[in-house]
Structures are given as C-alpha cells and as structure tokens.
Amino acid sequence: MATRIDTQLVDPAQHAEGLLGIARALPALVVGTAVQQGGEALANAIAGLVS
To answer: Are 24 and 17 in contact (CB under 8 A)?
Structure first.
C-alpha cells in the first residue's frame, strides 16, 4: 500500500485523466440535482393543491 501511495505522489500525471473526467461530469451532476429538486418541489406543490 505504501508503494502505491509513493507511486501516486511521484507521478500525479497518471491520475490527471481521472480528475479531468470528474471535473467534466460535475456540472451535469449539479444541474441534475437542481432539476430533481425542482421536480420534487413541483410535485409537492401539486400534491398540496390536490389535497
């Protein structure tokens, strides 16, 4: 395990590709969460009107 950590510290460029993928996916995750919360709020409002 220590060897693996040492390798990651010595050559962080190997992991840059994974970090870039996460950075590219983050805006979509944030938008998806906002849409989901908006949908839940709309569903709650409709449920309040119906009941």
So the answer is: no
Burial pattern 21-46, b for ≥16 Cβ within 10 A else e, equals eeeeeeeeeeeeeeeeeeeeeeeeee
- Note whether 14 and 8 are within 8 A (CB): yes
The structure's pTM equals 0.45
Euclidean distance between CA atoms 4 and 10, whole angstroms? 10
Per-residue model confidence as pLDDT tens digits over 1-50? 556 656 656 665 666 677 777 777 888 777 788 888 888 888 889 888 88
> CA nearest 14: which of 4, 1, 27?
4
